[in-house]
Amino acid sequence: MIDSKTRVLLIGYGNPGRLDDGLGPALIERLTGLDLPEVTVDSNYQLSVEDAAAVAEHDVVIFVDAAVKGPEPFFFCRIQPKAATSFSSHSVEPAAVLALAHELFQSKARGYALGIRGHEFNEFGQWLGERATANLEAALEFIVPLLLSKDFETALTDDLSFADLN
């Protein structure tokens, strides 16, 4: 059921100092200031266990990251909560953040991933490659109307597994 009051959290993550790895934060930067109703945006270098508290305050969470493989220009898929067998301060997977929100805060937030295809990751620099920039633009053209319609289930691009693509 589509509800215009659905509270959505977008978390863009990645390292902007590693070229296309900064695609998640770049998308969030472009969304900041659009004042989309019931939409909260946040970005960071990586996900952390603390993100579970923010997820629990929303009905839907969309994790936005650069994809090292997978379809161009992006994919949009569902994420199921999955408890992690261990945690590191350096990385927490989206499924584990969602599982923590469900387990610790009794959240029923639905999870999705927007993976924007990048190509250049192995150098230092704070810019996006030409192909990544084009993919970012395509992802923006996709996500803004989706955030307004909130019809997330019909927007799934494929029956992809986020873990297999990132």
Estimate the helix proportion, in percent: 25-40%
Physical arrangement of strands within the biggest beta sheet: 2-1-3-5-4
Shape: globular
Structural class: alpha/beta
Number of beta-strand segments: 5
Alpha carbon gap, first and last residue: 29 Å
Average of pLDDT: 91
Number of helices in the DSSP assignment: 5
Strand content: 15-25%
Give the gist of this structure.
This protein has 166 residues and is α/β, with parallel strands linked by helices. 31% of the residues lie in helices and 20% in strands.
General description of the model:
The chain has 166 residues and is an alpha/beta fold. It contains five helices and five strands. A five-stranded mixed β-sheet has the order 2-1-3-5-4. Strand 1, helix 1 and strand 2 form a beta-alpha-beta unit. The longest helix is centred in the last third of the chain and has 20 residues. The protein is globular and about 40 Å long. It starts with 7 loop residues before the first strand and ends with a helix.
Keywords:
166 residues, alpha/beta, 5 strands
Summarize the SSE layout with pairings.
Elements (H helix, E strand, L loop, with lengths): L7 E6 L9 H9 L7 E6 L6 H6 L3 E8 L6 E6 L14 H12 L4 E8 L12 H20 L12 H4 L1
Parallel strand pairs: 1-2, 1-3, 3-5
Antiparallel strand pairs: 4-5
